[in-house]
Specification:
The structure holds three protein chains of three kinds. By secondary structure, chain A is mainly alpha-helical. In chain A, 70% of the residues lie in helices and 3% in strands. The radius of gyration of chain A is 22 Å and the shape is globular. The chains are: A mainly alpha, B alpha/beta, C alpha/beta.
């Protein structure tokens, strides 16, 4: 009987250890614990008053969730692109600059500095979605139909995207101080939770519904694992790959819209700088193979939160500015190595041996 | 075999990309350049002959201007506009412009200008090294070189003058202004630019020195946001969340100041003239100066992009046989206080 | 006898989560002998080979080379001990040249003397009569040649023990002959060869001894002369064989519906894969087959029917109505299913579960936006796992961890689930044990009685004779004959392949 129970325990451990989401979740827990020990009030959420006079939630946790929103949204699209095409889109930062420029171009008209919007925000948002999805389609065509390596294909927009963004606004840095522009990156009047958190949650719900009510994930994984086999089973691998890039384009549009709304302005040369690397990192931290195939979006999302948690933690511990990247790199290396399939397997074996010894 | 194929594809692609981006920058450059040439052409058509009469020698001074890509920043954009406004036929110049963020491309452009036998080479170098041989070529051809905005590692004899901003002085001006506010206690959130850049070193240095020497000056947070507004916002947000008390935001450029202010607004912390937190920025962007006018910010330090008039003066003197007294010319830089700034200042100095 | 033993395995155990793959297995190999390792799928042959070559680490047991115990923890260890392997699936790099593949990872020098390498490769290829040039890209060679290059590579490494894991499954007869000649040469030089295969004929024509495994345990070690075929098969299957020639003895029921229009009819069909235009008809309830040597175009022909390669010409009718099949999904919508020849590359989706692999085709036909519910998917998977006897830990196990035969059954299940009217099976029994082969043959005949049509391709002619009512014979990418009724004999087929007129 005890033997049986033991093996059940062992199976339980193995199951958890094998779960892809295990590493990012435990990383998150370790970071939380670390902060909790250093500052017991770290997770306190308080009610404050916003500059518009409404009660709003405040606290470290809120800040982290708030600032991770764009990355979370991007990591969803990046996971799909990675799974289907076995490569990553490195142009998302540049396309955010592009999409953001479109938003402000429409909201500001030809003015550089204005205090009212020149068109309804929904129009600006839709235009931004359209443009970002078009550029996503451009990448998708290069990858799916011209069979370029994803990194090479997206290198084009990575290089040219910010220049095009600058061109959209005639090399000026437009600024729109209409309070409505800022709702989506700060607070909606009367709502206590920062809007980016709400948008990210909405986005996750929609993703979950899409995954539940379509077989996008099965098709994407099939194409990523074995494109030829998928083709012979009636799937159009090119179309699937193309679609994932267009979906990522949509994610880029939403992320870009939030980014612009946060500051009501855009500096196309630094906005969302290096965010593509963080998005790819989120996918990797989630334990997804960057060579494509099977994926777990929820793991990538947790990965994205880990990255943001880490950033804020490093700020909190006042790591010297010059050393910040080094600290980040060390933590990231540890996490990525831990979430590598090889290491996870070793872990599982160790655990097994350990429990086996205990049994003896 | 396959490797070769991939290499070939990569190579042709990178060429394609180079051509693409090359086109875009060259396109905007030449477009702007033709603007600059069109304008005087139109002018000479309307009040044309008068202008021709005014030019005493009747001969234009040929200048080759090598600059960084104006898309790089608002500062560079303002700098480029200033140069284009100054070096026109009206003012007695025939100007050619070349833009690149890459040293080799800039050197190649310089060689071309030397072949074109320009009279002056005006260079804002992308990199500090590798210029010796091309400057020697210029010297042997009798072409005079004036550096602006950026210095290079070359012998002083190779150029006539170097017009630069003194970033350390910018920092000092700002810190002195802050000291003159006579606060009881200075709790400063210091947001740095890209660590190691000359602007960051100059602007950080002055503040660090002051904070060390004064007992009531504390830097509560010192962190780099790498010139990015979003990062600055996150840093300030985490400082607020930590419950740290502060009454000064010292951001090393306007973008980061804006990000910091966004975080303050979100937390409903009052800032600006007569409020809880003093906000300081640098670079004098037009929109930043407007914030000063509205008294939302307190101070903005200038990083003077308007070097053209200095260059013009040096060229005029050289033409008359007068060498500049000092090879290194440091530009005058202003700092604006929200309480004294005027609309005229905004229009004149905003970039 | 004891002193010429070069390799001895004792008490080998290996366990995977949930499965005991090997338990207390022993194996003895003598100098200069060809030793067949036999067993059904899942008997533990592949696992034993992988333990021996250092791919897996054994849980218990010992390995002796020339009487000395050795530890083999990696493939390098195995190579150093003089054990070389040629696997069933090609494990070389298709984007390198033939010569590079033969020498990759074997030189310690940082630089490569290309000329020397190519010359050495050429000499070896010539001596083995392998029709490949050293500078040719490996991926451009046929699978058979790739296989032979892999063998050449192993031969060149001066091994004491050569393991051939299903080397002949991609080779045609003349190539098999060449391989056997090579094996005999090596045997004469004192190399011990472990030969893993499913072809009984081949075992009896070339081997000296047989070791039989069943369900991960050691059954016995026999001299070939002491073990008649029937006994071997019964030892492998673990039961006395009564139904081995079942089908042949039975009169195959005539299930062909000759009245209504043919299920599928093509005229002048050709494809970009180099099939010359051919005509083809299949009726309801009919089982027919394409036969011919490797490379004759039999696979390419059925691929053209399914739209797997770009169709370049011809008219296609189903049930008397003209239709267009441009890509696989078109064929699927018409009720055509296709089990491809290259299981690993074209069939399975390796990392996906057995369940997802089974429902894939049905799901694709329903479309991305009409998912099969979780409950249904599980029901379907369980149903077919049971029906076809798929050996898997669970329906959620990744298909790649199954043995080849069980993978094949999953693909078969995938198509049966779509309830096709016309099923194309290209080598469904390749690399599959005798028992499963019989099951699949019976299943095909059962489908025919249900009024479905099946096109069946196999390299084993007697297997085709068991199930097909009509054989289309191909040579050099042309249809050269069609055999029915009394013409369906081995000799007639052979003579048609050898000397039929091109149509």
């Amino acid at each position: 009987m005890t033997d049986k129970k033991l093996s059940q325990d062992q199976n339980f451990f193995l199951r958890i250890l094998k779960k892809q989401i295990f590493i990012p979740i435990s990383a998150l827990l370790v970071l939380m614990l670390f902060n909790l020990i250093a500052d017991p009030t770290f997770f306190r959420v308080e009610l404050g008053i916003s500059s518009l006079g409404y009660p709003v939630l405040k606290g470290n946790l809120i800040t982290i969730l708030d600032n991770a929103s764009e990355l979370v949204i991007l990591s969803i699209g990046m996971t799909l692109v990675t799974a289907a095409s076995g490569g990553q889109d490195i142009s998302v930062g540049a396309t955010i600059a592009l999409a953001g420029s479109v938003v402000l171009r429409i909201l500001c008209g030809t003015d550089t500095l204005t205090d009212h919007i020149h068109a309804p925000i929904i129009v600006a948002f839709l235009a931004c979605v359209l443009v970002a999805m078009l550029f996503g389609a451009f990448n998708g065509v290069l990858v799916a139909y011209f069979k370029l390596q994803p990194m090479v294909a997206t290198l084009i927009l990575f290089t040219a995207g910010r220049s095009i963004a600058a061109w959209i606004n005639n090399n000026t840095l437009p600024n729109n101080t209409d309070p409505r522009v800022g709702y989506y990156g700060n607070f909606f009047p009367g709502i206590a939770v920062p809007s980016p958190i709400l948008i990210a949650i909405l986005f996750m719900i929609v993703t979950a519904l899409v995954m539940r009510f379509t077989k996008l994930s099965l098709f994407t994984q099939a194409v990523g694992i074995n494109a030829e086999s998928s083709r012979l089973n009636g799937i159009n691998p090119q179309l699937i790959k193309f679609m994932t890039y267009v979906i990522l384009g949509f994610c880029v549009a939403v992320a870009g819209f939030i980014k612009v709304s946060r500051l009501s302005t855009i500096n196309y040369s630094v906005i969302a700088k290096d965010i593509e690397m963080d998005a790819i990192l989120a996918v990797a931290l989630g334990g997804n193979a960057l060579s494509g195939g099977k994926f777990s979006i929820s793991s990538s999302i947790v990965g994205a939160y880990v990255i943001q948690f880490l950033t804020i933690t490093l700020y909190r511990f006042e790591v010297p500015a010059a050393a910040l990247p080094a600290y980040k790199a060390i933590v990231v290396i540890i996490l990525v190595v831990l979430s590598a399939p090889v290491v996870r397997k070793k872990f599982a074996e160790l655990k097994k041996n350990f429990t086996a010894k205990e049994a003896n | 075999m396959k490797i070769k194929k991939t290499l070939a594809i990569l190579f042709s692609l990178s060429l394609g990309i180079a051509a693409f981006t090359g086109c875009s920058t060259a396109g905007s450059g030449s477009g702007a350049g033709s603007d600059a040439q069109n304008q005087p052409a139109e002018n000479s058509a309307s009040d044309g002959n008068a202008g021709g009469d005014n030019t005493s020698s009747g001969e234009l001074i040929k200048v080759g201007i090598i600059n960084n890509d104006p898309n790089e920043s608002g500062y560079r954009n303002a700098n480029d506009k200033d140069m284009k406004a100054m070096f026109t036929e009206e003012n007695g110049y025939e100007a050619q412009f070349a833009y690149s963020l890459k040293n080799e491309e800039q050197i190649a452009a310089a060689q071309k200008y030397i072949q074109d036998e320009v009279d002056y080479l005006l260079i804002s170098a992308a990199g500090t090294s590798g210029w010796d041989s091309v400057l020697k070529d210029a010297q042997s051809q009798g072409i005079k070189v004036i550096l602006f905005d950026r210095t290079i590692d070359a012998d002083e004899s190779l150029y006539e003058a170097s017009i630069v901003s003194d970033m350390a002085k910018e920092g000092e001006t700002a810190v002195n202004w802050l000291a003159s506010q006579n606060l009881d206690e200075y709790n400063i959130v210091h947001i740095q630019g890209v660590v190691g850049s000359s602007a960051q070193i100059g602007r950080t240095g002055a503040l660090d020195a002051k904070a060390k020497s004064e007992a009531n000056w504390n830097i509560v947070t010192q962190q780099t946001a790498e010139w990015s507004a979003e990062t600055a916002q996150q840093i300030v947000q985490s400082v607020i969340d930590a419950g740290t008390k502060f009454n000064v935001i010292y951001a090393e450029n306007d973008d980061m100041a804006k990000g910091a202010v966004a975080a303050l607004d979100k937390a409903n912390i009052k800032h600006g003239v007569g409020q809880d937190v003093i906000v300081m920025g640098f670079d004098c962007n037009m929109w930043a100066l407007e914030e000063l006018l509205k008294k939302n910010w307190n101070y903005d330090g200038q990083c003077n992009p308007f070097q053209a008039s200095y260059i013009d003066e040096i060229i005029k003197n050289l033409e008359n046989g007068k060498k500049p007294a000092n090879k290194v010319v440091i530009m005058e830089e202003k700092g604006f206080d929200a309480e004294t700034i005027t609309q005229a200042d905004v229009d004149q100095y905003g970039i | 006898m004891q002193d010429d033993v070069i390799l001895r395995l004792e008490g080998i155990c290996k366990e995977f989560p949930g499965v005991k793959a090997l338990s207390n297995v022993q194996f003895t190999l003598h100098k200069g002998e060809i030793h067949a390792l036999m067993g059904e799928n899942g008997a533990g042959k592949s696992t034993l080979i992988k333990v021996l070559t250092g791919v897996y680490q054994k849980d218990a047991g010992s390995i002796y080379m020339d009487g000395m115990p050795v530890t083999i923890n990696s493939t390098q260890d195995a190579q150093k001990s003089g054990i070389s392997t040629v696997y069933q699936e090609i494990t070389l790099c298709p984007n390198l040249t033939v010569a590079e593949n033969m020498y990759i990872g074997r030189t310690n020098e940082m630089t490569t003397n290309w000329r020397k390498m190519n010359a050495g490769a050429k000499q070896l290829l010539d001596s083995l009569q392998i029709p490949a040039s050293p500078t040719q890209q490996l991926g451009d060679c046929s699978i058979a040649v790739q296989q032979m290059v892999a063998i050449a590579r192993a031969v060149d490494m001066d091994c004491k023990v050569l393991i051939l894991d299903e080397p002949t499954s991609s080779l045609d007869e003349s190539e098999v002959e060449k391989l056997f000649k090579l094996m005999t040469d090596l045997k004469a030089r004192g190399v011990g060869i472990i030969f893993v295969t499913h072809f009984l004929d081949q075992v009896y024509s070339v081997c000296d001894r047989i070791t039989v495994l069943r369900d991960g345990t050691f059954v016995g070690d026999y001299l070939i002369s002491e073990l008649p075929r029937v006994q071997l098969v019964s030892k492998m299957m673990g039961k006395e064989l009564d139904s081995f020639d079942d089908i042949k003895q039975e009169e195959i029921a005539d299930t062909i519906d000759r009245k209504s229009a043919p299920v599928f009819e093509a005229t002048g069909l050709s494809s970009a894969a180099g099939v010359n235009p051919y005509d083809f008809t299949i009726r309801r309830g009919e089982v027919n087959g394409f036969t011919g040597l490797l490379g004759s175009g039999r696979s390419e022909s059925v691929r053209a029917i399914y739209g797997a390669d770009k169709v370049t010409g011809g008219r296609v009718m189903m049930d008397g109505k003209e239709i267009k099949i441009k890509k696989p999904i078109d064929a699927m919508k018409q009720g055509i299913g296709y089990l491809p020849e290259d299981r690993k590359h074209d069939g399975i989706i390796g990392d996906l579960s057995v369940k997802d692999n089974i429902i894939l085709a049905l799901q694709v036909m329903k479309g991305m936006f009409k998912p099969i519910s979780k409950a249904d998917a599980e029901k379907f998977a369980d149903e077919y796992i049971k029906l076809l006897g798929i050996k898997t830990a669970s329906a959620d196990t990744p298909i790649k961890s199954l043995s080849g035969g069980n993978q094949q059954k999953c693909i078969l299940a995938r198509w049966l689930l779509t309830n096709p009217v016309y099923l194309i099976l290209d080598e469904p029994t390749r690399g599959i044990d005798v028992g499963t082969k019989l099951e699949i043959q019976k299943l095909v005949l059962k489908l025919a009685t249900e009024g479905k049509s099946v096109t069946f391709i196999s390299s084993e002619i007697d297997e085709m004779l068991h199930v097909c009512k009509r054989l289309i014979v191909m040579r050099d990418r042309h249809v050269v004959g069609e055999l029915t009724g009394e013409d369906l004999t081995q000799t007639k087929i052979m003579s048609t392949i050898a000397g039929g007129e091109k149509k």
